[in-house]
Amino acid sequence: MPPLAHFSGRNQCAPSDNARTVAAPGPAVKPRLIRLIRLAGGFPSASNADIGKMTSSFRNRVEAGRALAKKLARYTHRPDVLILALPRGGVPVGREVARALHAPLDVFLVRKLGVPGHEELAMGAIATGGVQVLNEEVVKSLNIPNHAIAAAAAREQRELERRERAYRGNRPAPSVAGRTVIVIDDGIATGSTMLAAVEALRRQRPARIVIATPVAARDTAAKLGRVADEFIAVLTPVDFSGVGQWYDDFSQTTDEEVRLCLRVAEQIQAENRGEV
What is the distance between the alpha carbons of residues 205 and 188, in angstroms, rounded to a whole number? Predict the structure, then answer.
């Protein structure tokens, strides 16, 4: 198992414990495309033998969240701390962290912009507040035209707005100004989604932004460590084929599970305040 890193089931949340396809890449582009898709976890998971007999490190997102909470223990019982999880997979992880730290939990909406025809590979991301971040390496390597980027952004903006309504309803977003914000996802491959989240949050003037995740690609961890005030991960493996490689159960988190996570987290906060 790779070493712990620190850079300066189902139901996962139960109380518990199509843009136009661009032309197929030519021979010179294919190796880069394959490498980038592997980093994004876009190919089916390899067998243990195929990945050097590596085994997954977390049973599910709940266990991953508990492991991550131990790395964040110094933020326990701090009134300035706010946990923001990236839906959908980051929310079950964030719920476990919020419970351990006795901190409030909310969601922060970010949507990946997938490469046309290879949507599993991120060419960028958009976030609440009109922020758009592009992965210039992917865009330039694959010669992705501006109109394809715009089409993907428009489509994902609609989904971002739908999820905002589904998860939050009429409840206002929490204020982050002057607070220590811990941004959580269930794993980080290329980092485009997290970069968009950090850029959007910076505009709201938090005192400190901490990126936290159970697992991140080693080179991505180094990159994100330069844009956040602190980067914390349980694992930062060099041999990284995709986030799902590190989980026994990496099944998709549903909208209902996200809502349940938020309800449970709010109930725990109310109990801590003596309101229940």
Answer: 24
